[in-house]
Amino acid sequence: MDKMRGEDDRVPVYASGSQVLQKLQEKSKQRYPAMYSSVIGGIILDPCMMVIPMDDHMVHRGHGIFDTATISDGCLYELDSHLDRFLVSASKAKIDSPFPRETLRSILIQMTAASGCKNGSIKYFLTAGPGDFMLSPKGCTGPAFYAVVTATASSSSRLRPKEGVKAITSTVPMKHPFFAGMKSVDYLPNVLAMMEAEERGAYASVWIDDEGYVAEGPMMNVAFITKSGELVLPAFDKILSGCTAKRVLALAPKLVEAGLLKSVKAARISAGEARQCAEMMFLASGLPVLPVVEWDGQPVGDGQVGQISLAVYDLLRHDINSGPDRIPVPYT
Ligand SMILES: Cc1ncc(COP(=O)(O)O)c(C=O)c1O
């Protein structure tokens, strides 16, 4: 027989939208400065209204892709490279964009302007859209585009990294190259790899593929400086082609000209070779360069932040602050 339930065990039933709104206002701790939703058809500034439908195919089946871009001192950095990758991911996930590329771009710029945010990032998602909780997206009403702005501290606080971080090798199985090569929202392996690193006192983990080659981290690419002065980034055939990593490949020849490096390349690098390197670093849009000084409990090189990692950081920071790929946000 069912235990008699007391008054306190009863689940409240909110029949009116205003009661739900009040609860959302009480609970919404995160204050995101702006969101765009194609379901609503506009930009939302009230944080407690920044919601997506529960029957969206991204929510219950992971049928969505996403990408990001950095806002630095009122400019969007490398938005076009991120949008290119976004549309490649969309095509691999068989999601048609509800808007042409130029409209997506314009929405993201207008949303950033409406947010007033000068430093932070934007994240945007393309999904199969709201539907009927089925596995097939046939019942979805049509693809949806969502975007959000997240604010961070001012760019002046993003100083050259003085200290390096620790890395571990992940024991979480790596994604199949087909899935690793697109930025789908299915980040469970990445989340578990990140949690594993945190549990073991490291900043992040590194995947080694089944042939023993270095792959990537759960939200970053990896780069190495060999003892003979080569900058090596693991080839992109089994991993996400990182916008930061690709920018480093384009900019680093300047360090060759300056005599700091011998060469720059994307190539397969075995874990054994990588462990012999003089320097190691993580690369990702939000970092953008983070020197790694310890890997699986062993010092990388001399265990100190390397000079070339700092030179790569300086190159990227200069590109973010005054390079050619910046869109000034038209704040009003
Ligand atoms: C799995 C993975 N690899 C690499 C990266 C780095 O990519 P990007 O430099 O474009 O931020 C990311 C970024 O989120 C990622 O999720």
From TrEMBL:
Pfam families: Aminotran_4. Its cofactor is pyridoxal 5'-phosphate. SUPFAM superfamilies: D-aminoacid aminotransferase-like PLP-dependent enzymes. The keyword Glycosyltransferase does not apply. GO terms for molecular function: catalytic activity. Keywords: Pyridoxal phosphate. Signal peptide: none annotated. The keyword DNA damage does not apply. It comes from the Eukaryota. Belongs to the class-IV pyridoxal-phosphate-dependent aminotransferase family. This is Uncharacterized protein.
